[in-house]
Structure formats: structure tokens, C-alpha cells
From TrEMBL:
SUPFAM superfamilies: Thioesterase/thiol ester dehydrase-isomerase. Residues 22-120 form the MaoC-like domain. CDD domains: SAV4209_like. Gene3D superfamilies: Hotdog Thioesterase. Signal peptide: none annotated. This is Dehydratase. InterPro entries: HotDog_dom_sf, MaoC-like_dom. Pfam families: MaoC_dehydratas.
């Protein structure tokens, strides 16, 4: 984690990207256990196929956790004031996700200097899977 200050950040600055290993069944199983989200769409291929999918796919919250990691590798988690996402695509097995972010606003609120960043996940083909934003106190 680097030391980020309000004065050192400019609108348009990019966060250091977070590139992750391809999504695999082990990751999905481990996340299911850690999150207590055992939805069979994410861990049971037979169930997923009965639901019309070709195979299991990643939990949306796994990708949101990756975005949280993007943010907290840049600033201390105690600096986060808001963090929200919108799920717009399915992350399939084998997708290699990269998380990125961009500073879009600098402002003051509640006596703090803050920035707003737009964040997203995309696979190796450039398909965006999650869009979101976060507000960070600097």
C-alpha cells in the first residue's frame, strides 16, 4: 500500500491494476466456504446445467471482494467511506479478471478531503463484468 494524499492525487489518475489468476473450481469452492454462499449455481455443474448454464460461474461477491482488494492495496481500508457495485456480466470459469480504477472527483465532505473513484472488473477479452465506485477519505 502506498501513501496517497489528497494533494498527490489528480482527477484522471489510475489506480495500480490488480490482475488475478483465472477463475477455477477451487477458487469457487474456497469462496463458497469462506462466504457461506453455497449457491449450487457456483459449485455444482449438474445444477448449473439444469438451470440452463454451460457450467458453474463465479459469485458476484467474489468479484466485489477483488475490487475491495484493489482499493485496500492502494489505501488503508479505514479510509473507505462508500463502496458500491453493479453486476453487469457473468464471470465464467477460466476468465482472468483484472480490476482497475480511476479517480473521477476530488471534494470535501464532513470535514474530510475525499476522492471518488470509478472501479471495474473485466476479463481477458475486455468484457466488463462489474462497474462500481468508491469514496475515499484522504
Amino acid at each position: 500500500m502506498s501513501t496517497v494524499t489528497f494533494d498527490s492525487v489528480q482527477v484522471g489518475d489510475l489506480l495500480p491494476p490488480l490482475a488475478l489468476a483465472p477463475i477455477n473450481r477451487t477458487t469457487l469452492g474456497l469462496f463458497a466456504g469462506a462466504s457461506n454462499d453455497h449457491n449450487p449455481l457456483h459449485i455444482d455443474i449438474d445444477y448449473a446445467r439444469k438451470a440452463g448454464m454451460n457450467d458453474v460461474f463465479a459469485h458476484g461477491m467474489l468479484s466485489m471482494a477483488y475490487l475491495g482488494r484493489l482499493l485496500t492495496q492502494w489505501v488503508d481500508q479505514r479510509q473507505l467511506r462508500e463502496f458500491g457495485v453493479r453486476f453487469i456480466g457473468i464471470t465464467h470459469l477460466g476468465h482472468q479478471i483484472t480490476c482497475t480504477g480511476k479517480v473521477v472527483e476530488k471534494f470535501e465532505a464532513d470535514g474530510e478531503q475525499r476522492i471518488k473513484v470509478e472501479i471495474q472488473t473485466a476479463n481477458q477479452y475486455g468484457d466488463v463484468k462489474i462497474l462500481g465506485d468508491a469514496v475515499i477519505a484522504l
